[in-house]
Amino acid sequence: MTSIARTLKDVSHPVRRWIASSILPGYTSSVVPEPTVSREWRHEWAQASEAEHNSAWLREHGRQSMAEIDEVSRFKPAELTYREFFQCNERLWEEFANHLDGRTILNVGCGPIPKAAEMPWAKRRIMIDPLIETYDREFKAIFGGRSVFDGMERFSQKAERFIPQLESKIDGAIICRNALDGMEFPAIVLSNLSSYAQSGCKLLLWTNVVHHNGGDRGHHSIALDVDSFARLVGNLGFSIERLTPEANNGSTAAWGCFAVKS
Length: 262
Known about the structure:
This protein is of the alpha/beta class. It has 2 domains: 1-35, no CATH class; 43-261, Vaccinia Virus protein VP39 (Rossmann fold). It has helices at residues 2-7, 14-23, 43-71, 79-86, 90-99, 132-143, 186-196, 226-235; strands spanning 104-108, 124-128, 153-155, 173-177, 202-211, 238-243, 252-261.
């Protein structure tokens, strides 16, 4: 205890004062370390961050992305989609591609490069994202009037806002990838997706669930842990057929699945 006391001789630092009060007999201090404060998150900050980041990304990578989209087809799936949701399994992809024939896709939180752009053989492709018009303008400026959103139905709005005309209308697939942790009320968004999906509709879902460091101005935690988030998806009527490969890192815990509406 004497050696510890020497080490803590200078207790001017708040942490040292707190340690001293915990382990040294007779030492009292009214000062304790400040608790970790979660980073403040606001939806308008998230939207501004997304618009700034994605617009810059489009200017740098838009041409390459459009070239890649032009090459994909039902017989040549996009690499990330094929790996993440179909495990690079040709049979699984073929079943999904055939399922989309004559059906409707809904892409929620689609961002500047919607996944539905990789599936042009679907009968209808519907996008929901509050920044669609921003991305559309960027594309047209880069490509002289052409946009990746051409031929798609667009709802440039928050996904939390329910769209009555889509209720029970999505019979092909709902895609929501890397978007929920930038939304204000992600559980409401999932509830809306459940309402939009017909029985048999496929769900391609992936998101960061927990931001261990509190997130940033554009992203925040959306559940206590991935297990509780997975239960929510199941409780909304989606039967999970397979999970996406783990993509967790030191700062986030992510979760994704391929599921079917019951």
